[in-house]
Amino acid sequence: LNKALLLITESGANLTPEALACHQKLGECSYQKGDYDEAAEHYNKCKEIISNIDKVDGETVVLIQQKLAKALEKSKRFSEAKRASQESLDLANDFLDPGHPLVNVGFRMHMALLQKTNAPGSEIEAIEAQISKLERMPAKSISVSDEVSQHVDYLSGSFKLENIEKQRMLNQAKTRMSQGQLPSERKKSALVPVIIGIVLFCLVGGG
Fold it and tell me: Model confidence over 11-59: pLDDT tens digits?
């Protein structure tokens, strides 16, 4: 892919659908390797190409924007990730049917990002309201590409893993609290016979 991109660039065709496809694939490869900054560079290059060519379908535009937001989040560039995520919502609103899988998963990704960055409650509530609205809409059967299906499955899985991790941390906190309380309770229980003995001694002594 790098060689193909080099040939495309040297031929002066660096703002073409072919270059777009190369940067998409390289962005995905970089992300899978854990090089999130490099992935973000490729997705930003995709955006530049999209702005210079015609006939790029809305699904591809939104998909690339969501992948950019996720790469930035993974790279812990949270302020950039939030802006990119919000832009993905705006693009989805412009280009996609509300029932499209990328719309729902985009809102969920954005909410998770807001929660992770301790955003104001009003922002989170606004996104929750949008998600609730989408869930109340009649279900539609919308055909999507394999790439979109894989992306949606990946994000949906990451949301579940995050929820599992949050639950695990909550359970650990509860366990620590419980363990912290038990010793004091045991101490109190151990003191009861001692106190009773002292009281009896005093009563007997007093008699």
Answer: 777 889 999 999 999 999 999 999 999 999 999 999 999 999 988 999 9
Q: If you average pLDDT over residues 83-102, what whole number do you get?
A: 96
Q: Quick check: 82 and 118 in contact, CB under 8 A?
A: no
Residue 65 and residue 94: Cα distance in Å, rounded?
Answer: 13
Instruction: Give the C-alpha separation, 201 to 207, whole Å.
Output: 10
Whole-number Cα distances in Å, 81 to 44, 47, 167:
12, 15, 25
Are residues 82 and 114 in contact, defined by beta-carbon separation less than 8 angstroms? yes
Q: How far apart are CA 11 and CA 152, in angstroms?
A: 35
CA 43 to chain centre: 18
For residue 49, the tally of other CB atoms under 10 A from its CB is 22
pTM score, whole prediction: 0.75
Q: Are 116 and 78 in contact (CB under 8 A)?
A: yes
- In eight-state DSSP terms, residue 34 is T
Top pLDDT among 204 and 81 is at: 81
| DSSP three-state, residue 143 | coil
